[in-house]
Amino acid sequence: MLSTRSFAGTLAVALLGVVTVGGAVPATASDTWTTTTVASPEATVVDYGDTIDVEVDVDSQSGYSPTAGTSTLYARESTSTVWQAIATTASPSLGFVDVRPRIRTSYKVVYNGHTPSSSQDDSYESSESAVFTVEVARTISHPEDGFEVRGKVRPDYGERKIIVKISSRKHSGYTRVKTIRTDERGRYRIVLPRRVGTWYWLFVVKSDADYLGTKLIWKTWVSDRTAP
Fold first, then answer.
1. Cα gap 67→219, rounded to integer Å
2. Is it the case that residue 28 has pLDDT exceeding 80?
3. 84 to 74, 77, 107: CA distances (angstroms)
């Protein structure tokens, strides 16, 4: 009888241990993480018509980059006070390619955050990058050589001035000789004098509130024997 009671007591203790070990494991609580968004442009100065790529990096307080949610590129041109969404990525840290500023333009990237459908998954708050500005320089077309120089200044340079300077050295010593004007479509034309020697002509288009200026250096050469 003593041995039977001892066995029963041992069995009860063993069963109690099984119940304790096999109890339900508490669910892991989800977290909400703050995020930071960094946007890095390939260049901040471009010629009119050129494009840039924008690299995007979204990180979170957890130390990991969120994989859910989207990032949107916003633009605000110098002639506007309104931010416009121009592109959205399918992944937070996916960058933007072939962005074409047509005028001085400010940009920023906004990560929209993510709230999961499951309460056990982490959430990420939204964030936006610092604003960066891309300057756009006007362009001036021209022929390959000759004494007649003609072309077009783009964009929006109708009936405006081009300053013409001259020097015997390519990179210094220029003096102003005249000012010419474009026509209503931004086209210009000038016939340069046939001066003996080698001369450098500098065509200057000034900057304004919306565009950087541009310059063109033109070379002429006349020997003593070919001078009129």
1. 56
2. no
3. 5, 9, 9
